[in-house]
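Contributing: when you submit paired examples, paste them exactly as shown. First protein:
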Amino acid sequence: MAPINDYPQRYALTGELHARPFPSLKAPSRAVFLAIKQPEDAANRDRSADLEHLIELLDHYGAPRPSANATHYYGEMGKYRLKWEQHTELVTYTVFSSDAGERAFDPSEFEVFPEYWLSKAPGGRITSALLRLLPRPEEDAEIADQLADWFVPESLAVADVLEGAAVVASDFRIDSAGHLRMAVFTDEATGGRRTGRIVQRLCEIEMYKSASMLGFSMVREMGPHLNALDIKLTELMAQMREPEGGAEKTLHALLDVSVELETLAVQSAFRFGATGAYRAIVNQRIEALREARFMGRQGFAEFMMRRYEPAMRTVQSTENRLKTMSARAVRAAELLRTRVDVERSAQNQEILASMDKRADLQLRLQRTVEGLSVVAISYYAVSLAGYLLYPVAEAFEVSKGLLTAVVTLPVVGAVWWMVRRLRRHLG
């Protein structure tokens, strides 16, 4: 298993996280979010490995174990509180702590997950995030100063959410330790459950955003192959205009292109569908925050419109392009197949005409040799009749020559009549 930080981001089909109450924020708190996915065929993975990995983490902290076949877990883990959920294709860990430390977004916060435990993960990390939760200052300028120290101004997104319940911020950039950073400033009247829902929404936005970007990664890998197939398909369609030759060869090449396109469509169908679903969920979660502009800064929705939506439109465009190319290949193959059928019909007509001509020649030849056949048959028939009538001729003292002359005409007539009747019967 490769180190968890080296595994590329993957998509994950997940359900909605269950919000847990947060303690009232009188002092800075923090949360660490981690999502793990197996590299291949994660939907059909051995889920017991996920549970065993969770138990190993709980044993490390001496925390109670979950029940057998559990799909989610929430409980105390030393000085931390852990929420674990098992989804269709990934597993998520969210660790909460009221001890935030003086340094914001300290990479050591991720050490809540031991290094040896991470190395044994049944999969790789698709995303991780460090969240810092603080009481909201009286002056918004104090928030602006802190955000300027923590985030990159060019990509910073800030919003006042849930009618002033909190101010949330992130630049959606990966820091040097490989984590995303998010800050939450909660109003003193905001309860623990509402704080939990805000944290939940932020984790979901990052998780589904990262998951949907896997579709964009797939599209970038698919692009060169799709371009090559497009060029090949255009060339084959141009060859269809040629009046002579190569129709069947072109048809086979078109069928090969159609097979490749259908293979790409089958392999990418689920990923395209999942990307569209994740995109919708990201937008829904942002809408659920009911964000308002904070100090003239761009909000999460505006950030996604500028940085996230173009990638999603690229994925959708590639999906439509693949469908269009598949339809073009099918139509071209049908047209070329029709052309091949027409050419074969013309060849069959020529063959039938040639066969008719040969049959006519055979009939003429048959009529030509028919007279010779009558003579040959008559010759042998007269000989047989002579042998039969010679004793009678001797009794009447008739010579053999005279007897042969007498029977020749009747025999020839009988043979001619029989041959003619046989020919009429067969005709």
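Second protein:
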Amino acid sequence: MDLLELSLTLSAEQQPRAEAALEELGALSITLLDADAETPDERAILEPGAGETPLWNALVLNALFEGDADRRVLTDALREALPELPPERIAFHEVAEQAWERAWMDRFGPMRFGRRLWIYPSTIEPRPDDDAVVVRLDPGLAFGTGTHPTTALCLEWLDSLDPAGSTIVDYGCGSGVLAIAALKLGAAHAIGVDNDPQALTASADNARRNGVAERLSLHAPENVPATMRGDMLVANILAGPLHELAPVFAGLLKDQAPFALSGILAGQEYELVERYATCGFAGLRIAQREDWIRISGRRGTG
């Protein structure tokens, strides 16, 4: 089925509000490009280092939707989130699914997170490095490539841990990148949870590509085994669902298990920290990358 691409030209200050609105509207993917670059290679986003932010004044944001998405609904929602955005900066294009996948692969390059962890598209052979832990990734139509600050925050958190022999829960697994990264870093088993069947398909495909499919279990939220308990949890979704899911996450984790949450815009973290503190989580810490937040800590009050 053909897809619908929505393109915006906007300022760096407007980007977080636009992304949040488009994710709420069900965007299948969101990519960012430097609007002032002159060539395709210069336009491609490379993941900034820890603590760094892109220096671009203007961005091109491309969001992909199902082909039958209502353009008027999308436009009205954007105008509400960004009332200062001129209408002429919103454009729609019909895109063949395979053509979009090729274009996405052209923009996606190798990215490093933390000390050991690298994300490579499947079309590029990794450079030899004895210390590197490499995840080969094709996201399909699911969110999670590492190019977004929320995914980067979670990957850096995983790289800072020693998950050897553990079971990790990746709630809202998207492309499976976080679960697969944990497995490549030494986790014994990963449980991916997502309410989007396309995400579960993308996660399964990427797990096979990385040789870890036998160690990844995938579930819709309603099918998660009632007795399942993880040694760690990562959830890269949105602040609203994270607020609602706090007691669910408490029930999914063993005592003292570490966890990380992202998909949180700056300013939303305070209410979430209070919520998780009252739901049996402790040692809560905040990290920020651009306008996005990661909250980490552990299950239990001791």
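If you have annotations for the second protein, write them as plain sentences, like these:
DSSP finds nine helices and 14 strands in the chain.
Residues 38-55, 140-144 have pLDDT under 50 and may be disordered.
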